Amino acid sequence: MQLQKAAAVNEDKPDRLSKLPKDVLLNILERVDTFDAIRTCILSKRMQNLPSMLSQIVLVLSTRDLIRMNGVVADVTDRILQTRAPEITIRMLKLRFILRLDDCLSIGKSVALSMATQKLDAAEFEISTQTVSEYCTKANMLYFAKQFNMFIGDCPDAFAGLTRLHLQNMRFREPDIHNILSTCKRLESLHLFQCDAGIHSVLQVEHVGLVELDITFALFRTIDLQYDTWSGFEIPLVLGFVPQLSKLNPIKKYTLDKTLVLRDLLANVPSISELHLDFGFFCGTPK
Q1: How many CB atoms lie within 10 A of CB 191?
Q2: How far apart are CA 171 and CA 196, in angstroms?
Q3: 159-163, 207-211, 233-237, 240-244: which has the highest mean pLDDT?
Q4: Taking the C-alpha atoms of 248, 253, 254 and 258 in order, what is their torsion angle to the nearest 10 degrees?
Q5: Rounded to whole angstroms, how far apart are CA atoms 73 and 209?
């Protein structure tokens, strides 16, 4: 009611912002979070249809805000995507939400429908849990993984179009992550925070489009990166602080003209004991 009154007042007193050309207004609105853009547009009748014309949709709230507004994220996502004109390309869709199944299914179905009817260049899900990482028990992690598996199982079309995925606080079965990668066909970036398949588990990663894999606080014994080819001539491997890594076997099947500087690659790997390099017709010089 207060917003409606404020809008009525604004109609009597036109502001300079609402008088700007539409393309300039959209450019301004896309520089802020989509929630802020909606709050701005609701105060002017002329601007109320602009959120459905945004090419970037970014709904990213803090974890504290999501606890009470997770349903709002689902509702706003559905409303914006349903009212969009199909000819307007979505350059970026970025959503952060808590793993509550009803909200997740609403978001997943809205995104899947949008992917089927509109052009979407990049889509990102950042999925958090109601229990913060430091208080997550094994039972919590198993439950969250089960909930996520139900989510991706019910909304495979939404995940098929994702380019970035962030997960946290989940303990999967070993086949689960393979299923995630095979479902997320367009995936380019996968971030796993306190996610694993149990103590001393093995993570096998094989995905033709994946260019970034970020794993933090996991109990994997082995991470097996399987790629038929490396795109370009750069070394697609960066090792952060991994004090327990003892074996590394990078393989490349065609000519590499980039010098591999081992002292840089292994600077944060104090426990390396076995290093096997197989670059086929290697033209560079490891040093």
Answers
A1: 17
A2: 5
A3: 159-163
A4: -10
A5: 29
Interatomic CA distance for residues 8 and 2, integer angstroms: 10
Residue 114: burial class (beta carbons within 10 Å; 0-12, 13-18, 19+): buried
- Maximum CA extent, the chain: 75
* C-alpha torsion sign, points 101, 106, 112, 114: negative
Tokens at residue 161, please? 């179009």
CA 77 to chain centre: 16
Between the CA of residue 105 and those of 62, 112, 191, 206, what are the distances in Å?
A: 21, 10, 21, 27
Strand order in the sheet with 56-59: 56-59, 92-98, 123-128, 164-171, 189-196, 212-216
| Pairing mode of beta strands 201-205, 189-196 | unpaired
Q: How far apart are the first and last CA of the chain?
A: 69
- On the question of pLDDT at 198 being above 80, the answer is yes
For residue 3, what pLDDT band results from cuts at 50, 70 and 90? Answer: very low
